[in-house]
What we know:
This protein has 518 residues and is α+β, with helices and mostly antiparallel strands. It has one domain: CATH 1.10.630.10. The chain has 18 helices and eleven strands. Strand 5 (408-410) and strand 6 (413-415) form a beta hairpin. Helix 8 crosses helix 9 and helix 8 (207-224) packs across helix 13 (335-349). The longest helix is centred in the first third of the chain and has 39 residues, at 2-40. It binds protoporphyrin IX containing FE (HEM). Protoporphyrin IX containing FE is lined by residues 129, 151-152, 163, 170, 219, 329, 332-333, 336-337, 340, 396-397, 400, 460-463, 466-470, 473-474.
Amino acid sequence: MALQKIWTNIKAICFIVLACFTALLKFVLKFPLGIYRKFINPTDAHQKIYKTVADIPGKISFPIIGTRWIYLKFGSYKLNAVHLAYEAMFSRFGDIIREEALWNLPVISVIHRECIEIVLRQSGKYPIRPPNEVTASYRRSRPDRYTNTGVTNEQGVVWASLRNQLTPNLTSPGAIKDFLPEIKSLSDDFIHMLCQVRNKNDVVERFEGFSNIMGLESACMLILGRRINGFLDGVVSETATKLVDAVTKQFRTSHEAFYGLPLWKIIKTKAYKEFIASEDTFYEIMSEIVDSVLNDQTQSGTSESRVFGSILRSTNLDMKEKKAMINEYIPAGIKTFGNTLVFLLYLIAKHPEVQEKLYNEISRLAPAGTPITNEHLKEAKYLNACIMEAHRVKPTAPCIARVLESDIIYDDYCLPKGTVVLMHTGLACLDERNFKDATSYIPERWMDKETYDSLFLITPFGCGKRICPGKQFIELQLKIVLAKMVKQFHIGFEGELKTEFEFILTPVDANFILHDRN
Ligand code: HEM
């Protein structure tokens, strides 16, 4: 214990010495560098001199490790609260901030709607999103399983070809509408399970565990045309639990590898080993499931799902690539959906007047005993507004990342092509400059068409050609689950919901109170 303390102190002292030295060096070099920059800074036709990436304010950067120290033990912020770190940095440094990743690669964060719009509008044929390096590196190390780093991490023509293999069946509204009966029956079973697992005070503890299972079930239904668990009598199958745990670990360890010191590139750190173990677990279990679905289909001669059918029919992919694709799409829909549902229900629970208004709308459109149809969903303006407003106030993915495809000018800065830009749409949505009463949950604002000019701000599924291919399916599913839950329960929540950042915003220990309405 004592040795550990001494070692932590030594590390802290070293960093402080290094920080002082770097600060001194910067101060000494400021004057000659300032003159030099006047000659090299970009200018426009009117000879206006622009500031460069190096002029953007931000936390002090050290050689090699850049600003990643801020999340270390003695740094300013917590690794599991990166969302709060950005909030603090924007309020200290302004609308544009610079961080530096390994080898001092600049990463620019922006919150101003004008800059977000400039970046998202410049998107070309092959928009570039920085890859998740740890996944890409793992996939490259397993050529026996993967021939590419996946649609999420690839760029250019390889990305476009992977994306075109599957998305038509995922993104066309016609194809998604066909899923309505399955989503309804899945939602009924989910609600049945919640009733079984409630305690005597009607509390469902750690609700996020169940909503993640719902995410898994629906992703499997979407991609494979088959469910894994069945939600029978409140029992969650061991397989489903293992898959959800594996994905939870993937998110946590990717987050640590990304925001912490990237030591995993040199040695196999604990986080990296955990990441590999969770990838392997997911792959092995899912491979068995895919094989069994394939076997059943060969015997019956029909495909259970048009999405799965389209993967199987693809002549450009071999079976290894098909499995790799399934292993990428299913995990992508588990925690993203699970977290989004928790945030949505939390906001509904905390606003009883909204909940009653929503209940009245649903009961008017589909009274007891009447099944919900696509027509009802189209007419359910308040239901849609509640979901839209939840995406604005508590988005699961509060940030979109892009690599600039050409130079851009913003606020006297010239950001060159190739710069990594993080657009903090989640924080921009809570900014009074963009929305009145920005931090309040007011679905009514979406009943007013004038607020529809927020195209580049409310982007829970991203934007442009790299937009999430699961968007339409998830939107339909959220509407059905919310409508059914509000019809069945008075939803309550005591206290404030705790959140952490694990690559996406994640709820912690969400205990919902679900009293039956009747
Ligand atoms: C509530 C649920 C979900 C949320 C909040 C979500 C959010 C996102 C976001 C923000 C992106 C980045 C888009 C961009 O950079 O512009 C993305 C990409 C992606 N999502 Fe989702 N997603 C969800 C569900 C799903 C589902 C169900 C699937 C599977 C069908 C899926 C598959 C993917 C894939 C493959 C990409 C990468 C697309 C590309 O790079 O071309 N997501 N998602």
